[in-house]
Amino acid sequence: MQKVNETEAVDPFAPDSEPERESAGKRRRGRISGYFRISIILGIILWVTDFLIFFLDWRSFLAVSATCLIYTCVMAAAFINSRAIYMKEMTAFAEEFRSLEDILIRELDMPYALLDEGGRFIWLNPAFEKVVHKDRSYQRPVSTLIPGLTRDVFPTDEKQVKVAVELVGSSYSAQMRRIPTSHLITGTDLFGNRTGGNIITLCLVDNTAMRLAVQEVDDQSLAVGLFYIDNYDEVIDTVEEVRKALLTALIDRKVNQYISAIDGLCSKIEKDKYLIILRKKSLQTLQEGHFDILEDVKKVSVGNEMAVTLSLGFGLDGLAYTQNYEFARNAVDLALGRGGDQAVVKSPDNVVYYGGKTRQVEKTTRVKARVKAQALKEIIRVRDAVYIMGHKMGDPDSFGAAIGIYRIARTLGKRAHIIINERSTSLEQILRLFEGNPEYEKDFIINSQQALEMVIDNACVVVVDVNSVERTECPDLLTRCKSIVVLDHHRAGKDSIEGATLSYVEAYASSACEMVAEVVQYTGENIRLRPEEADAMYGGIVVDTDGFVNRAGVKTFEAAAFLRRSGADVVRVRKLFREEAVEYMARANAVSQAEIYRDYFAFSTCDGEGLRSPTVVGAQAANELLDIDGVKASFVMTPYNGKIFISARSIDEVNVQLVMEHMGGGGHINMAGSQMEGASPEEAIEAVKKVIDQMIEEGEIDA
Hints:
- It is built from 21 helices and 23 strands.
- The longest helix has 49 residues, at 58-106.
- The two termini are 39 Å apart.
């Protein structure tokens, strides 16, 4: 329910304020009494005049006295007789007026009713009877007919309350006012002999026509869309020369037919980009169909070895057409940042995702990495200090990537600091390589408070392994630095960092360390990593790929080879990640207690008691559950610090990122997570199961 604004209906029972009522009553009584006092005042004046005449002439005094006596007798008789007649006539007039008022209220075209303080009907006029299809004998609570009108929305004083309600397919504004019965005309059949207490007047104002008009205007408002072909160059390269034009024509035809079917306009602005103009109502039609163009375009084949995929971005409800276009650009950037093959609809207060079932194909070209590396070098070169941070509860991948950026900044002669607030078990093992090392300054690693105290004007902040503002180690630092650089391998979400000077987000990359290792090679300053730095970056890749098993591509092994050449020791790295016996047993216990749901989904709980990094152990257990034959996705619940941490993993058949986004989290297509507060592990498992059931029903998951 929501408060509404419209022309206020006239309430025949609406009282004036208390001071106004008392003042009006006094004025009425004064006027009526004044009519009877006039004759008395005139008589007194005559007798006073007669007394003054006595001193002038006694004969005149006698004549005037006789006249005054006759006047006094006549007025006394008239006062006694006419007062009763006057009051009788006034009473009769009041009765007639009251009857007329009753008739007017009953015949009011607007639905009107009276309720007692508990919300039960006292009386309703014929117009109200027609609306609710009940007669005036109906005395049950109003909430039985209009569910939105419960006691918690009733007025508590004499101020009018308006509530929007739906009734029999129509929209109404329910206007209610609380009135003491002492203010009402009693003795009529409207409310019988009620005395004391309060009644509530209820008037229904029909807003259906206005709502439909507003809805029609909203449906006809402009929406802007952008269609990008994700892998245009890769697909074209796999097609024979004579068929390239045919493939392009078939894609164009698919897109144009799709948009023309909903009365929209489609214009090709580049070889792999389309601008779409359509109505908001037409966009809703596409949303209801879950943008089936995403699947249709994959069927286009003229001998190409790779399926064509699209990224769609739509903007609507902006204050201007240009703002809708900006929304569409942001939306398609989100779609590309999340791996492509999906649609994103962005409005001023919401972002909705569709699709995203396909794993993004790894790009073998190194042009983008080289361009980003050069841009990063130029940004750092013109700044006096560099602050590097990853996500909260940092892991080997975020720290390894931060070390790579640190080495670039130091090679360029700039001050650099890595921000870490809380050290997890896995992170402590890597930090041992740097603690007490004379090659690194004492303020090499700082916390958020120190960073905010020492930040200078001409500084830049580099964010690695995360692109969400709130998940960074120090969100306030993003507003204090002139330049922001983002390097991440996670799919972008609605709370992504905006306004970055340089953004390098590649969802296909196995880890942030892989991306940074590639950037280090192309910076062009002959950067030499120290052995401990190479170990840290190599360890980040090992952890995020689960030993080069998960999401490892060609560039992953090339990055690993570069780090090996830079001094990374495989044996030394393996020793860094050995775990304690209690952690190993906790993980084994979580795996042994796994429950298989719907034949394909594994659920378990990891007991984090006594573990230094229970969330890490939970994630490891989720990885191991994927080794069970037939399991498409695994979900492990880990209680920690009053929250339930959900670790979700898959191989290639289920997009666990979409599942976790329904739970308020996010991540990768096959590695994601979420958190729940105020719930038990069992309740968290049931919540995830409900999401899976819903996604299966809606076709987002094949099962």
